[in-house]
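TEACHING EXERCISE
Course module: macromolecular assemblies
Task: Read the component lines below, then compare them to the predicted structure of the full complex.
Student: A.B.
Group: 4
Components provided:
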Amino acid sequence: MNLKMMLPSAVRPFRRRTGPGASPGTVVALPDEPPPQVRVIAYGPDGVVEEQAASVSGLAALTQRSAVTWVNVDGLGDAAVIQQLGNEFQLHPLALEDVMNPHQRPKVEAYDDHLFIVARSVSLDEHLETEQIALFVGKNYVLTIQEGLPGDCFDPVRERIRKTVGRIRHSGADYLAYALLDAIIDNYFPVLDRYGDMLDDLDEQLMSGGDGESVAQIHKLRSDLSALRRALRPHQEVFNELVREEQERFSERTRLYLRDCLDHVLQIAQTIDHYHEYCSDLRDYHLVTLSHRSNEAMKTLTVIATLFIPLSFVAGLYGMNFQHMPELHWVYGYPMALAIMASIGGSLLAWFWRRGWFRG
Amino acid sequence: MNLKMMLPSAVRPFRRRTGPGASPGTVVALPDEPPPQVRVIAYGPDGVVEEQAASVSGLAALTQRSAVTWVNVDGLGDAAVIQQLGNEFQLHPLALEDVMNPHQRPKVEAYDDHLFIVARSVSLDEHLETEQIALFVGKNYVLTIQEGLPGDCFDPVRERIRKTVGRIRHSGADYLAYALLDAIIDNYFPVLDRYGDMLDDLDEQLMSGGDGESVAQIHKLRSDLSALRRALRPHQEVFNELVREEQERFSERTRLYLRDCLDHVLQIAQTIDHYHEYCSDLRDYHLVTLSHRSNEAMKTLTVIATLFIPLSFVAGLYGMNFQHMPELHWVYGYPMALAIMASIGGSLLAWFWRRGWFRG
Amino acid sequence: MNLKMMLPSAVRPFRRRTGPGASPGTVVALPDEPPPQVRVIAYGPDGVVEEQAASVSGLAALTQRSAVTWVNVDGLGDAAVIQQLGNEFQLHPLALEDVMNPHQRPKVEAYDDHLFIVARSVSLDEHLETEQIALFVGKNYVLTIQEGLPGDCFDPVRERIRKTVGRIRHSGADYLAYALLDAIIDNYFPVLDRYGDMLDDLDEQLMSGGDGESVAQIHKLRSDLSALRRALRPHQEVFNELVREEQERFSERTRLYLRDCLDHVLQIAQTIDHYHEYCSDLRDYHLVTLSHRSNEAMKTLTVIATLFIPLSFVAGLYGMNFQHMPELHWVYGYPMALAIMASIGGSLLAWFWRRGWFRG
Amino acid sequence: MNLKMMLPSAVRPFRRRTGPGASPGTVVALPDEPPPQVRVIAYGPDGVVEEQAASVSGLAALTQRSAVTWVNVDGLGDAAVIQQLGNEFQLHPLALEDVMNPHQRPKVEAYDDHLFIVARSVSLDEHLETEQIALFVGKNYVLTIQEGLPGDCFDPVRERIRKTVGRIRHSGADYLAYALLDAIIDNYFPVLDRYGDMLDDLDEQLMSGGDGESVAQIHKLRSDLSALRRALRPHQEVFNELVREEQERFSERTRLYLRDCLDHVLQIAQTIDHYHEYCSDLRDYHLVTLSHRSNEAMKTLTVIATLFIPLSFVAGLYGMNFQHMPELHWVYGYPMALAIMASIGGSLLAWFWRRGWFRG
Amino acid sequence: MNLKMMLPSAVRPFRRRTGPGASPGTVVALPDEPPPQVRVIAYGPDGVVEEQAASVSGLAALTQRSAVTWVNVDGLGDAAVIQQLGNEFQLHPLALEDVMNPHQRPKVEAYDDHLFIVARSVSLDEHLETEQIALFVGKNYVLTIQEGLPGDCFDPVRERIRKTVGRIRHSGADYLAYALLDAIIDNYFPVLDRYGDMLDDLDEQLMSGGDGESVAQIHKLRSDLSALRRALRPHQEVFNELVREEQERFSERTRLYLRDCLDHVLQIAQTIDHYHEYCSDLRDYHLVTLSHRSNEAMKTLTVIATLFIPLSFVAGLYGMNFQHMPELHWVYGYPMALAIMASIGGSLLAWFWRRGWFRG
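Instructor-supplied answer key:
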């Protein structure tokens, strides 16, 4: 695994583009980002019209023609387009600034004639990426503005609009907003599953010993899970807000579905917390295991070295070349030396035995 | 203990079946699960009728005939049956989706004419298993849908219905719902007792030293206790909700019993927390013990090696074979060498003594 | 200290007797427990009557004759007696079940004509023991049911009733209940003091080095303090409840005393928390100390070994017995060897010095 | 630093004198404490009268004569005096008991005609000491009862009363109570500053390596900061209570000053928390540093020993005295042995190099 | 990095100047601080007047002439000037004392005719510095008093006032206060970015091993982040207070902007928490890595030493110079010794292999 590549998002989740002290509501384009792609789906019980909009002017007027109009903008590379969009739909400058600084915490802001929701979707290819998705929910339109990363978690919703004359086609903009939020949240499940698989692998690795690489992987996994948690956590407040709200924006029935969605958020949050804690547990477990193995190595070394070092000294003693060493000339000198060594070795072994060094 | 076998439930407590972006209320069967078994017990003060239902159609009508009817469905292997059951009892699609995704957090949802409760029972054979049990509590029926694992914690309740013309036979569906929830919660106690036994064993093992296996067992035990906690914890909210509720579903008298049940949940939660913390304590204790033993081994090694390595060097010095080594030819060369060694050894011992290395 | 003997209470604080799924309110006797001893003290401003009751029948009638009647039952060995007591005083079955499962969390339950309070007293002889004490507070009686451990913390209260015609004799059952609860709580202070002494000893031991035993003692002490905390903590809610309650059970004046008692609970809780944290601190301190000493031993060993191992090698080299080793025959071979050794040793020492190994 | 001397206060912050089960309101003298010294300052806009009172009788009457009377009692050595004082000022027995058990948590109790405040001042000479100060605030008097430690933090207040005809002389008893509480709280700042200095020193020590003493000092400092925190923390509730209170005891204007005082308490609490956490950080930092140095020593030892042990073995091999060792008689035996050694040493060095042991 | 230089602010964030027991509202000058510089900007939709005020007298009168007047005071070196300013604008003495003790926690105090706000700006040159900025917001003036560090985060606001006839020129004093607070908060972003860069560097360093310096840097970084958190955290309460306040000081519209500012505070707080936690993670990761490397070194040493020490002993044995050692004279003595060595070495290697020492 290329660990370095995956880190930036973990260390630096949120970076701001507008300079400090700038006038509030300043909209600055992201130069390296793709130019915005605008795609409109207008539908009702009777039919669906889908088109790629060349320009954003006239979009607001369009929303009058169908029961529900969904305008999806992909990419923040052109400040003028976003600004124009703001004028079209009369969006608040502060909301626009948030859209262009795609590192907001998910939140809900109620404006007079629309609700502004910031959500954050995740994807995990080579490394974990999060994408800010801004939703403006009006009377009969939903405007979504994505950062413009390739891929999108809304395709199943598009399919449901196109194919079936089901609940979504008979419901209003509030249900569409729910369906989009639900798609964003549901997309956390497969990502979480992949982290679960990695954890399983790591657990298995560590159970059979683990190596230096395992430690780095635990560290990496925890960082990613922290990033995931930071991305998900504020959605809890968002949905609590949406469910609580007594205003006209969400119908009673849709609110029931939103509560279900909140349940999913809680479940994901719990699982992330569990995985995160499990990473710490694995690290601690590995640390104790390492201590255990070091202790074992240390004991082996100590027993062997403590046993043989004195014996070798005795051997070295009688290996000295002094001319006048009476023991060397004794007939029983050699057996005596062996006896000395045996008795030293025996007493050391007995001492180790009594201290319990051979037990575990 | 086969640790690997026990892990999946610990790492991956909740996995979702419905794909992301699917329409809410989608009911997907679990292919590897057994087909649903439907068992009906209808009773009142006057008698008990018990039967295995071949089909779910007509079940709702059946509930009109007795004071209380308990329909128990075991197994989620056939989506059609569950769907049909939903139609029979007019259950909300979102509730049905929750039933089929058997990894919900325990919760209560109040619908117009029934209460939907998700609980989670535990069993510990070779490894810890949790099973989702969904309860629908209506005016005069209780519908329980289990995941279909072999075994069931409801047998004592069945016995009480069958044998005695006691409180349960004279009470309504709300008391039956309480009795079933109580049976689910009470079943945590023997599981907890077994973990208590394991902790006792581990504690004993570690007090007499412990080995590498002990560390893995602490890790495993903690994971299991985490899983147990995740399973139990949300019941607290469930019972708080049930006790609080002023509506018609639970009578004043039954609510008193539910409060008792909530007490048990709190007691179990406290014990789990205690066991969990005790595992961490054991791990930390073991870590300090290991450090202590490593330190002891290190000190033994250091004393012996530091003592003999210089002595051996002196012996090696006079073991060299140079022709011109005047000391070798001195009459008192050998005693001199011994004296040098004794003085080196003595000063090292004194130094160690002064540094307190022989004390603890 | 016999650590094993002290552990069961620490690991397994609460164990339940009634089987899972049993009908609520089931009263099961504790076979190994002593049979209940019933002792009645009836008093008022005018006098005190004290007797050992042979049977519980007629006790409720007795309470009509004096201003205050205190019935104290010691031991849970006979379910019939407790059941009869329940009938006499019309106690709720759930309360009786709690009495017989002496591992309840302390709590208050308000029934129509009596208040049910569960408290937990502690004693520390050879090991920490906790005893459940159930109090039923009626209009003019207090019924206390103890688990039946030898000893009792109520003797000072009995003395105050017998000897002085003071506040307690002029007050009602509510003041007696307060006096008994106060005696239970005050009994925590001497136990806490003994743990304080042990902590002082441990602290002293560790300051002068500590041994393997110290670690086990810290572990044991923490476990005991955890058990103590679990015993005490819920009393806080109990007294909060009693102080808050606006009903008729406790008079305004008595509630002032209860608030004082709550202050003591808070003070004890704070001290337990402090001791508990201090144990962790001692353990962490010991761990760092061990690391420090290991590091020191390691450095000593490394310096000596690194210094002499190369020197010994040189000595070994010229101790080889090859016939053709020109150096051995040189006149200055021996001084040369010594010079080589000195230069090796000197450079190593200089290297160590520069790396700061001799500093601390 | 004499660590042992400083510990008692840290381990044992609160010890109770009244025995368990004693009647509430029992006042027990502290035999080792100095006898109470009573000092009265009566003042108003017009003048100040200051005297040492020989007896406490008639003090209450005295409070009628001046605008404000401050009675300060120093020392708890005579229960009779405190009891008499209680009668004079009609203080509640429970309050008196609290005064005589000088280990109360700081708190506020509102009685009918006076407010009872327990505060805790700190001083740091050789070791940290805390002193309980009880304040009874009446309509036109303040009664302060100190434990009787030498020194007092009220001198600046006395000076302000004596010297200037400023705010304090024109204000009532409530402002005096504020001034005294403010003096108690302000006295935490210099103590905190000294701990800040010690932390700076420790930080410096550890940056340049640290020794075994440093670890003990961190441990000691943390204990002291814990004690300081336990002393300060409850004042937050005290001031919250005083600021909140709508009754007549504190005027609107004084409450503004009390809020300022609460700000100081928060600031001190934050700093203590920060210092406390910094101690833990230092300890953890030291632990990692120790691990780092042990690792370095270990690597040095391993490289040297692993390199020379095999070489020494080869030298030892050819140092054996067998008569029939052909190599010894070869002309190129010696160079061959050297070549073997060089090749062993070279490959080991290469292996170490490849494993990155020489890098850092 | 010069670590020592950066520490003081981390250890000692808040130090008080006024002595304990001083009369509240005492204003003490900071002798080492620069004398106050007063700069006035008065503006409205029609124009901007900017001047350096020589004296503070008459400033209050000046505020009547323009729509909004902003008086900025830089430096606390002259108590008289601050005192005079207080008289001019009728500021509360306690507020003035807070201004002169520039280590207040950020807070809001509402006085009758002005709002007193304490904020804290940060800058990171060679080390992290925080500066207290006091804001008095009146009906048509804002008075800011800075500690007087060189540099200032208000320049962008000055530019916006001077250059554009935009929102700020058409708004009241409340909007100016918002703009200044926003500038203070926005200034945390670049500081945070630099810490993010340092963390990235550290992460990279540790991934490739790390050295003793890395540990010190993590420690330093964490201290700085703690200081940053202590500086920022209370702003959350400040903005919550300002947003909540229903009074006349902030208009509905400005409150919308303040909510946006609160969002930024939350985002910064979250990022600081994340960085702080990441530091701990890095430290723990490094600790496990060190343990891993020590374990590896230990195993290498143990294998080599355990293998060769017994062999060397055998060699030493036959290197003894006893005259009567029969083995030395055997023809096959040498091969026998070699065989003994080979079998010892072989069995040890097999033992190591079976214990899994060569695996990871």
